[in-house]
Amino acid sequence: MNAYGADGDGGADDALLTVLELLAGPAPHGTSAPPGSPAAPGPHGTSAPPGSRAPHGPADETALDDLLDGLVARARRRGAPAAELDRLERAVRLAGHIRAERAEAARREAALTTLTDTARDLTFSYDLDSQLRLITRRARSLLGLDMAYVTLRGPHGACYIRTTEGSRTGADTGPGLGLVAGLRLAEGNCLGSVVQREGEPVWTPDYPADERFSAADTAIGADAADPGDAAVRAEGLRAIMAVPLRSGDAVIGALYGADRRVRKHTPQEIALLSALADLAALAVEKAGLLDRTRAEVSELERDSSRVRTSLTRMRHVSEAHSRIMNLVLAGGDLCNVAKAAGDALDATVMIRDPGGRCLATTGGAGIPDLDEEAVAKASLDAHARRRPVLAGEDTWVAPVIAGSEDLGGLVIRAASGLTGEDERLVELAAQSVAFLLLMRRSTAVAEGPVRDELLDDLIADPPHAPQQIAQRARRLGVDLRKPHVLVVARPEGGEQGRAVVWASSYAYRLSGLKTVQGGCIVLLLPGLDPSAAAKAVSEELSPLLGHPVSVAAAGPGHSPDGVGALYAEAGRCLDAMSALGGTGSAAAVQDLGFLGMLLSDDHDVDGFVENAIGPVLDYDAERFTDLTRTLEAYFASGGSPTNAAEALHVHPNTVSRRLERIGELLGPEWQKPGQVLEVQLALRLQRTREVLARRRAATHPARPSGHPQAPPASAGPTD
User: Fold this and answer.
1) Which residues, 6+ apart, have CB-to-CB distance to 310 below 8 Å?
2) Exposed, middle or buried, 419 (CB in 10 Å: 0-12/13-18/19+)?
3) Which of 340, 321, 345 is nearest to 415 (CA)?
4) What is the pLDDT of residues 457-501, one digit of tens each?
5) DSSP 133-175
6) What is the pLDDT of residues 376-430, one digit of tens each?
7) Cβ 328 vs Cβ 436: under 8 Å
């Protein structure tokens, strides 16, 4: 008996033994495994995955079948009994079953090895495209496919190709015509849409000829309906199977395996592709989780950076507030507080009182090009909201308040804008300013009796203890040797107590003095302009009380001895304002014209003449014109330019031109009754002074004081 059976004389046992030897041993050398077996080369020269093997190594399964069939044929030729022949045939059939099961087990082992290797390899890379390329490459190798590719669902629901393996794009089809990465697939009745919609594997042995998918293409037009279908045709694909990529219950994409020939797919192949699709879905989930983790880490880093920045700014705010409060507690003034706030904010800061007047500013230059209308509107909003309000592109207004009392506001010009922390610093700076103003008010109230007593002594007639007054004033920070004005304010209604408290703070803030006499508030303030001082007091006190306030002022004075006279003048001015119906207004003695001259103690004729016709007198003196004499002739003729021209022996047009020039010098309202009266009175006073000067010159030759005498009509030009 040879290795594969007896020479024809062996019995049934020998034949059965031969079947077992053929089943267990290697096939004859020179044979090859049949096509389609796990060890057979694929259509592209690929071989079975590493670690897999055929049941008989490289044995040719067809040759093995021939050997087994030959045993049965030889047994028949030698006339084996029917029972023996039946046992031999059963043994051959069982051997075939065993061989088939061994082949299937080998294929499963190879598939399991490939999936294990793939899962292990996926752990080596975190790049999604690399992982998907690995899966498509393994799918082609394991299933002997021409092409494999993965589609994913985009953020808006449309699918697109993410990775391909085995595409002929650029070779046979031309660029952009095949299944390439980034190609978007239209929704419809194509194979991929069915997978996305139903979430189950779908396969076809011949996609172009399959009526399930060609019906929609025929109705719509394949090339126009779905670019994916056109790409499939351009690639020349026939047999296609697609399995879904799942993330929980959702379908996030599909894994495709395709051949360029008609091919029927077995359940084992579908199951194997599904296993690879699960790995692909896991890779997509891992990549998404990694992206989300990276995004969260980046957001945490940004939050950490913002927190560090915020802490740095808050520390800056705290330090700046501490510096400002230390200045306030150390006795610093508003200018120091404004400078400290401006340095901390890198901005220009102006502190204003409730009337909008500047109390202090950084650098002393103020804020250029300030839109006062916008600032006033923003100030109202800021006090209503009790927080800083934007008044322009780079200007902010913050309220300075104490409870419900308006103490003023801060105006901030910041070229780079204000952050949230900067706004908090502005609020704290405003509180510091309010605290400083309240401290000043408290100090002023505490020193009130002493300061009131000093001013009472100054305005007494005669002054009390004049030799001690200057020393007492110096102790209170008041220098009576510098120019000062005296203001008398009479509230026309309302409670006087609030006005008295305000007056104490106001006088203390301006380094002045305050007292109350006869229901009127008396203020002695440094300055040269009594009219401006009266208006300032009226503008600040009237809104505070909610009632009109009549304010009169006199000055300036330059010594303690003249304070009493200033008080008397201001009192007469206040009485004159009431008699003239000017209750609730503000004026100084010089604002009343010739009445002020009459009311003043020194009867300042020079000042009255200067205010009334000074520009005309100066013009005549500088240009040797005759405007003064023309005015006298004009009034003497009853306001007739023609009669004035006859009196002056000039042409009426000359008088008209001179009157126009006078209007330019005295203003457009110089011929109104009130100003006309003052102009005529000033002309008479000036003429009287000239006559008296000539008489004194005749008796005692000397240069006359005041304006020079107007030249005669022939002394200079006519206008």
Assistant:
1) 421
2) middle
3) 345
4) 888 866 666 667 777 777 776 777 889 999 999 988 766 777 888
5) HHHHHHHHHHHT-SEEEEEEE-TTS-EEEEEEES--TTTTS-T
6) 888 888 888 888 888 877 888 888 888 777 788 888 888 777 777 778 888 888 8
7) yes
- Please list, in sequence order, all residues whose beta carbon lies within 8 angstroms of the beta carbon of residue 90, skipping any fewer than 6 positions away: none
Helices 334-345 and 267-329, packing angle to 10 deg: 160
Cβ proximity of 264 and 238 under 8 Å: no
The SS3 assignment for 100 reads helix
From start to end of 301-434, where are the E strands? Answer: 348-352, 358-361, 389-390, 395-402, 405-413
Higher-pLDDT residue of 415, 339: 339
Residue 211's Cβ-side half-sphere holds a number of Cα atoms within 13 Å equal to 0
Is the bond leading into 668 cis (omega within 30 degrees of zero)? no
Q: Which two tokens stand for residue 605?
A: 């004729």
Report the run of H or E that residue 189 belongs to, with start and end.
Answer: none
CA distance 626 to 629: 6
Q: Which among 1, 5, 2, 10 has a CA at the least distance from the CA of 68? A: 5
Beta strand pairing status for 250-259 and 239-247?
antiparallel
The packing angle between helices 530-545 and 496-509, to 10°, is: 140
| Structure tokens belonging to residue 672 | 């109104």
Average pLDDT over residues 715-719: 43
Alpha carbons 679 and 634: distance in angstroms, whole number: 12
- Say how many CA atoms lie within 13 Å of 575 toward its Cβ: 9
pLDDT interval class at 128 (50, 70, 90): confident
Q: Is the pTM of this model over 0.70?
A: no
Ranges 168-182, 239-253, 351-365, 382-396: which has the least confidence: 168-182
509-513: long-range contacts at Cβ-Cβ below 8 A with a sequence spacing of 24 or more?
509/359, 509/440, 509/444, 511/477, 511/478, 512/478, 512/484, 513/451, 513/452, 513/454, 513/455, 513/458, 513/473, 513/476, 513/478
Contact criterion met (CB below 8 Å) for 337 and 350: no
Q: What is the DSSP string of 427-449?
A: HHHHHHHHHHHHHHHHHHHHHHH
The answer to whether residues 162 and 132 touch, using CB atoms and an 8 Å cutoff, is yes
Q: How far is CA 593 from CA 168, 484, 551, 582, 599, in A?
A: 107, 21, 17, 14, 10
The token duo for 31 is: 């044979």
By three-state DSSP, how is residue 197 classified?
helix
